[in-house]
UniProtKB/TrEMBL annotation:
Motif 'KMSKS' region in this chain: 274-278
Entry keyword annotation includes ATP-binding: yes
Residues annotated as domain Glutamyl/glutaminyl-tRNA synthetase class Ib catalytic: 25-343
Name of the protein in its database record: Glutamine--tRNA ligase
Origin organism lineage: Bacteria, Pseudomonadati, Pseudomonadota, Gammaproteobacteria, Oceanospirillales
InterPro entries per UniProt: aa-tRNA-synth_I_CS (IPR001412), Gln-tRNA-synth (IPR004514), Gln/Glu-tRNA_Ligase (IPR050132), Gln_tRNA_ligase_bac (IPR022861), Glu/Gln-tRNA-synth (IPR000924), Glu/Gln-tRNA-synth_Ib_cat-dom (IPR020058), Glu/Gln-tRNA-synth_Ib_codon-bd (IPR020059), Glu_tRNA_lig_a-bdl (IPR020061)
UniProt record similarity statement: Belongs to the class-I aminoacyl-tRNA synthetase family.
One GO MF term attached to the UniProt entry: ligase activity
Length: 555
């Protein structure tokens, strides 16, 4: 695995280990909510949590934070497991679910009530919100704040038994309605939601809130370092409050293998992109893209389909680093990571995106010659392949002009160019259709130019090509950025208004050389066109490639 640069969290762990904390153990967790597919931001958290566990010989848990049943699904659970695994995250033991702990969480809630630290509030959500105040205005106590523990316990049992409707009652922590930290103003710990849960079915109709669930789940699992993004910094006092008051109770039940601590790091944001599951879901639901794994999406599954390797995403996360300073990372950095990987590891091949036929009149009819091409210009170990050459070949429309100055290093009427790994050819005549469009070029080749220059003449350049009948028809999807704005979230009219209408170009008539694999996930540099990956839908009968990234920085 890759050498991981140090960061402030590693320094905290090193200090904890030096002080002998947590019996020398490091246990982290990656805690996604299964309410969407994972995106590139999650990759940062995955690399951090699983990476720390690996380098400290500790453990990392995969735990679904599944306390909002109405927004979650088994489909999301499955996709998240697949994406974490693909990125190389190896979780310890079984996959965990916060819902595994619903019984203990409920017991913990009752325990807080017994300690006089929580009460059932039967006001409406609006009343509660109104009394909460805001940054300028202190909160007001609920009229139910002094409800006795007995009454709250009885109400809590009735809530659990389904006697109340959604929203009719909540359990709140009794902390401080004057706190400058809004999260400490008697936050809701439990609410009623009469919906079927993807893991627990209809067993529960009261569900714990994230801020209550998270610290307890961490404690139950013996998590030592609970890493989250900076928005949760203001939630840390509640995290600690919860554990401070339940530590004794959990220890008494032998359920506190470690006292976890929360640390925050900056979220990853990518320019010209959105990294919020809610917004990504909107792109999918409103059909701006074809699905969560559309190659234009910044989701892990989208990037995978686009042709990104897991190693390149891990490399990118290392380059970004981990700190508390938020910043927007340039998409070019993500592209550089995959370009570096594929430049080294992807075999070369030729694919003509917009074919134009070139007929070589002096090439013997029916004759086929096998030309030999190296699969990688710098890596002999990647071997060679043969490319059949015949009388008719395809070149790219953009590689031909009737007239051009010397700067045009491609084929021009009356002039010569070399076909990559092949002969020097000359364009002599143009064939047009009824509309005047060029449909064919007629020319000739110089048989004495394979692997050597013609005497006394200099061809304009070298272009890629494929044999006309012996190549394979294929489709190629070229992608541009999904958003036209640097920061789509700040776009006038919202992020949807910043969608690039030309983010996908389909080359439906492309042709690729024959002796290469078109099986899903085959990756190539198609010479002069960029790096490509065969789509999961690619078959021998209908090869389909996605352009992962161009050869050079495009933005
Ligand atoms: P979103 O806003 O996209 O829904 P989230 O934080 O609500 O993100 P979770 O499923 O709760 O999504 O995330 C799981 C873990 O991934 C959390 O620990 C979270 O801090 C981390 N994470 C999510 N987004 C990012 C990001 N952009 N950069 C770094 N870490 C992230
Ligand atoms: Mg979250
Ligand atoms: Mg979220």
């Amino acid at each position: 695995s890759i050498e991981v640069p140090t960061n402030f969290i590693r320094q905290i762990i090193d200090r904890d280990l030096a002080e002998g904390k947590n019996e020398g153990k490091v246990v982290t967790r990656f805690p996604p909510e299964p309410n969407g597919y994972l995106h590139i931001g999650h990759a940062k958290s995955i690399c951090l949590n699983f990476g720390l566990a690996e380098s400290y010989q500790g453990l990392c848990h995969l735990r679904f934070d599944d306390t909002n049943p109405e927004k979650e699904s088994e489909e999301y659970v499955r996709s998240i497991m697949e994406d974490v695994q693909w990125l190389g995250g190896q979780w310890d033991g079984e996959v965990r679910y916060a819902s595994d702990y619903f019984d203990i969480l409920y017991d913990c809630a009752l325990e807080l009530v017994r300690q006089g630290l929580a009460y059932v509030d039967t006001q409406s959500a609006e009343q509660i919100a109104e009394q909460r105040g805001d940054f300028k205005r202190p909160g007001q106590n609920s009229p139910h704040r002094e409800r006795s523990a007995e009454d709250s316990l009885a109400l809590m049992e009735r809530m659990r038994a389904g006697e109340f409707d959604d929203g009719a009652a909540v359990l709140r922590a009794r902390i401080d309605m004057q706190s400058p930290n809004m999260n400490m103003r008697d936050p809701v710990l439990y609410r009623i939601r009469k919906v079927t849960h993807h893991q627990t079915g209809d067993r529960w109709c009261v569900y714990p809130m994230y801020d209550f669930t998270h610290p307890i789940s961490d404690a139950l699992e013996g998590i030592t370092h609970s890493l989250c993004t900076l928005e949760f910094e203001d939630h840390r006092p509640l995290y600690d409050w919860t554990l401070d008051h339940l530590e004794g109770y959990l220890r008494g039940r032998d359920l506190l293998p470690a006292r976890p601590r929360q640390y925050e790091f900056a979220r990853l944001n990518l320019n010209a992109s959105v990294t919020s599951k809610r917004k990504l879901k909107q792109l999918v639901d409103e059909r701006h893209v074809e699905g969560w794994d559309d190659p234009r999406m910044p989701t892990i599954s989208g990037l995978r389909r686009r042709g990104y390797t897991a190693a390149s995403i891990r490399r990118f996360c290392d380059m970004v680093g981990v700190s508390r300073a938020g910043s927007i990372v340039d998409m070019g950095m993500l592209e550089a990571a995959i370009r570096d990987d594929l430049n080294t590891n992807a075999p070369r091949a030729m694919c003509v995106l917009r074919p134009l036929k070139l007929v070589l009149r002096n090439w013997p009819e029916g004759h086929v010659e096998q030309l030999v091409a190296p699969n990688h210009p710098q890596d002999e170990s990647m071997g060679t392949r043969s490319i059949p050459m015949e009388r008719e070949v395809f070149i790219d429309r953009e590689d031909f002009l009737e007239e051009a100055n010397k700067k045009f290093k491609r084929l021009v009427l009356g002039d010569e160019v070399r076909l990559r790994y092949g002969y020097v050819v000359k364009a002599e005549e143009i064939v047009r259709d009824a509309d005047g469009e060029i449909i064919e070029i007629i020319g000739s080749y110089d048989p004495d130019t394979l692997g050597k220059n013609p005497e006394g003449r200099k061809p304009r350049g070298v272009i890629h090509w494929v044999p006309a009948t012996l190549s394979r028809a294929c489709s190629v999807r070229l992608y541009d950025r999904l958003f036209t704005e640097e920061n789509p979230d700040k776009a006038e009219g919202g992020f949807l208004a910043a969608i690039n209408p030309a983010s996908l170009t389909l080359c439906a008539e492309a042709r690729v050389e024959p002796n290469i694999s078109v099986a899903p996930e085959s990756r190539f540099q198609f010479e002069r066109e960029g790096y490509f990956c065969a789509d999961p839908d690619s078959t021998d009968a209908a090869p389909l490639f996605n352009r992962t990234v161009g050869l050079r920085e495009s933005f």
